[in-house]
Design a protein that fits this description.
Elements: E1 3-8, E2 11-16, H1 58-77, E3 78-89, H2 100-115, E4 118-130, E5 136-139, H3 141-144, E6 149-153, E7 159-168, E8 173-178, E9 199-204, E10 212-223, E11 234-237, E12 249-251, E13 257-260
Antiparallel strand pairs: 1-2, 3-4, 3-6, 4-5, 5-8, 6-7, 7-8, 9-10, 9-12, 10-11, 12-13
């Protein structure tokens, strides 16, 4: 048998000479797997069966990241100030000490001890803001006024003594200094350019609770006639400020120091 194959446009022709035609082969039997009785049907899962996904808009996420960043930077630059004042209490005159029977019964030594002056310590807490990496701190004058000892607690839990550099009672501002270097600082902003409605953060140590951050807006600028100090040009905010916040930082969304928290 001689076979010649020629391909033409994808069609192959086969011509056979002197060969009887053979019947076409039978196709192999098809095999179909029967379903097993042990197969378990898989349930359909619908979107309603899964918990809903809350989508947060991109601007909201960006704002949240901004607040977190500013709060971290501000907390690293705000310190806790402990001011100790020592006073000597004069002994009060007790009529019993003038009674001869009382003096004979208890003796002269008791009288001398009773009449000795006693020293009393008064401690106040406030906040301050590091404005230079070599340890200069701005705070309120009423936080450090007449203090005999100043101690500063940093954000990294270091506790250092501080020295009073200067005060300005008319504006209720003061500057103290600690012996430290490479400290985190807050840059100064322009408080004269503030607009009512701007978002701000207040950072301080209310009630001795270190590194507390609250948020609010600028409620008013140029507040005067409040009766707190001689020279008044206050920024009013609705950010929560409590005792212990005095001397802390008021920060704008650029992370700049725009004010020192002074009064509630």
């Amino acid at each position: 048998m001689v076979a010649i194959a020629v391909g033409l446009l994808g069609v192959t022709h086969i011509q056979c000479s002197q060969a009887p035609s053979s019947p076409p082969p039978e196709p192999p039997p098809s095999i179909t797997a029967a379903p097993s009785k042990t197969d378990v049907p898989v349930p359909d899962v619908h979107a309603a069966d899964s918990p809903p996904v809350v989508k947060v808009s991109t601007p909201l996420l960006a704002s949240n990241e901004t607040f977190v960043k500013i709060a971290k930077e501000a907390m690293a630059s705000v310190v806790n100030i402990s001011a100790t004042k020592r006073t000597v209490q004069s002994p009060s005159t007790n009529p019993l000490l003038e009674d001869p029977f009382f003096r004979r019964f208890f003796g002269e030594e008791f009288e001398r001890r009773f009449k000795q002056p006693r020293e009393r310590q008064e401690q106040g807490l406030g906040s301050g803001v590091i404005v230079s990496d070599d340890g200069y701190i701005v705070t309120n004058n009423h936080v450090v006024e007449q203090a005999d000892e100043l101690m500063v607690l940093l954000g990294d839990k270091r506790k250092l003594p501080a020295t009073l550099i200067g005060t300005d009672p008319k504006t209720d501002l003061a500057v103290i200094k600690i012996e430290a270097t490479e400290l985190s600082t807050l840059p100064f902003g322009n408080s004269a350019a503030l607009e009512v409605g701007e978002l701000v953060l207040a950072v301080g140590n209310p009630f001795g609770l270190n590194q507390t951050v609250t948020m609010g807006i600028i409620s008013a600028v140029g507040r005067a006639n409040v009766g707190i100090v001689d020279y008044e040009n206050f920024i009013q905010t609705d950010a929560a400020i409590n005792p212990g916040n005095s001397g802390g930082a008021l920060v704008n969304l650029q992370g700049q120091l725009i004010g020192i928290n002074t009064a509630i």
